[in-house]
Amino acid sequence: PLSITVNKEASLTNLQFVTFNSSGVPNYSATSAVYGSPYILRIDVTNAAGSSCEPNPTRTIACATGNLNLTDNGSPLDGGAFVLNSLGYTEDQLVQLSGGTHALQAQYAGDTSFNTSTGTRTVTITKATTTMSALTTVSQGTVGVSFPTQVTVFTNSNGSAPSGTVSFTANGSPLSGTVNYFPEDATATVPASLVAMINGVISAPGTYSIVATYNGDTNYSTSNSTAASVSVKYKSPTVTMTPSTQTINPGDTATLVATVT
What we know:
Blueprint: E1 11-20, E2 26-27, E3 32-34, E4 39-47, E5 67-72, E6 75-83, E7 89-92, E8 100-108, E9 117-126, E10 130-132, E11 140-142, E12 147-155, E13 166-170, E14 173-174, E15 179-184, E16 193-200, E17 206-214, E18 223-224, E19 228-233, E20 239-242, E21 257-260
Parallel strand pairs: 3-9, 11-19
Antiparallel strand pairs: 1-2, 1-4, 4-7, 5-6, 5-8, 8-9, 10-12, 12-16, 13-14, 13-17, 15-16, 17-18, 17-19, 20-21
């Protein structure tokens, strides 16, 4: 008998950031993307020469098997653990990176035929653009009485809803009131959005130009609404007379008090 020892061979882990154009054509060498745009991570584990494996009984190039660990800036990404398929690769199709720079790393754990290896890729996610709807508000208001104003921040993003703040101004000065937010993450058919609503109060009469500004966040850029005009007046006064009725003789003097509230 002849005893033969077969040692493990070196492996190569190739981490690819794959983006897609408007026609769905993939770009396997991308290093950046807009937040919320379509992309995936693909990790191939091959021999040291980078040759594709042959998954059949007569194969001459083995397919790597086993697990790998995926991290983003040192933290587990989407659970961290991924399993190679029968062709020696795996994909993170649900990945959604936040705005900024990401140092991605795939650490292959090895198997009976391949040694461990590490693949890295640095990618940059730029902010997605936003637009704002027309303001929904009143055309006339009353001094000191709150009136509702609403605006929607629209995106083309498949990611999370915009965060951050929306500022409302009246003739360039902050509109008094508390802003409430209603974020909507993207679904399979509807992009992410953010609704902001304020019950604003104006303390002096006049004509006011109301404008909303989305201040942006890590993932989304700023945007402004078109102006809406609101005419603010004092509330109409109430006039009361006292006494409301009285009986006097001809030629006598009567006293009436008019109160304007």
